[in-house]
Write a structure and sequence with these properties.
Elements (H helix, E strand, L loop, with lengths): L1 E4 L1 E6 L9 E6 L12 E5 L6 E3 L8 H7 L12 H5 L5 H11 L4
Length: 105
């Protein structure tokens, strides 16, 4: 993933083989590598717009992101993310990150 503009935080549990995870801060021009099969997440680190370029292989997961931003998204979209898109949502890890970083939707 390349940050085109803005500032993003990434959490990845595989940073330098650290099983406790690491938060990485990225700004415009930074590249962040996310490994398939390793839990990770990212969020906008401030109130200014964030633009990223992400290449996902194999393809298919980009449809999840399209649906998440759509008013037509099913209300239980994340409930079936593993079956439909081959990845999982870790609600306990996500809740801990939301609290630790004071995130809001």
């Amino acid at each position: 993933m390349v940050v085109l503009s803005g500032r993003s935080n990434f959490w990845r549990g595989w940073q330098f083989a650290d099983t406790t995870g690491a938060t990485v801060y990225a700004t415009a021009g930074d590249f962040v590598r996310k490994l398939r099969g390793k839990w990770h997440t990212f969020w906008n680190a401030d109130d200014s717009p964030l633009r990223i370029l992400e290449v996902i292989t194999p393809g298919g997961l980009e449809e999840l992101f399209r649906l998440m931003g759509s008013p037509d998204a099913p209300p239980n979209l994340l409930d079936d993310v593993e079956g439909s898109f081959g990845c999982a949502v870790d609600e306990s890890q996500t809740a801990a990150l939301i609290e630790r970083h004071g995130l809001r939707s």
